Input
Amino acid sequence: MRLPHPIYGLYERRLAASLPKDAVPRHIGVILDGNRRWARSLGESASHGHRRGADKIAELLEWSEEAGVQVVTLWMLSTDNLSRASDELDQLLAIIQDAVADLAARGRWRLQAVGALDLLPPEAAQTLREAQRRTAGIEGLHVNVAVGYGGRREIADAVRSLLRAHAESGTALEDLAETFDVAHIAEHLYTKGQPDPDLVIRTSGEQRLGGFLLWQSVHTEFYFCEAYWPDFRRVDFLRALRSYAQRERRLGR
Output
């Protein structure tokens, strides 16, 4: 529901004030979905939608900071997206590179590239690595930029990394099999050392994860928003936080 100004502003402020400070998710994952459909509804090109979606990211990070969130994971490009038509993929990768470079240039957030960078064109992979290097010393909000990301690929990469590490240390496969447990996988995920996501938000009305943070989201709460990503507003974000705060988290118990 869209409320007219100034009623909208008053509603947003009251909503923000009503959120309990002790029920803020530490880690939020966001599936930035709906750019192409938003553009299509306006008779515009897909690249126009992707550009408008990229422009929305900094706002989301500002809202997250204000709320006290510690980690945000942005799913900007999946491994499945890499099979899109070359023209659209090239444009999308250029927009992502510009967006990531802009976030890094702000010097406000610590960026970390999560995904199979080896699947990306060298220039795109280098942009992500450089943004991570450039912001490595920044404290505050930690932002995972998921590009070339797939949950199954992440788990496969984690297992591959685990096996290589044990092979280098001389561990026999039989010995590894005897001691292997879930903690070993967690130590080799792209997000190792980070809290698992408490809340995942997906825009555009789609109600599925599509492989996002498969391992980490076992106890995650989900919030599905009807708005396309370029139309996602602060009030939509606050509603997601309110929904999260109202839930009783059992964490598998």
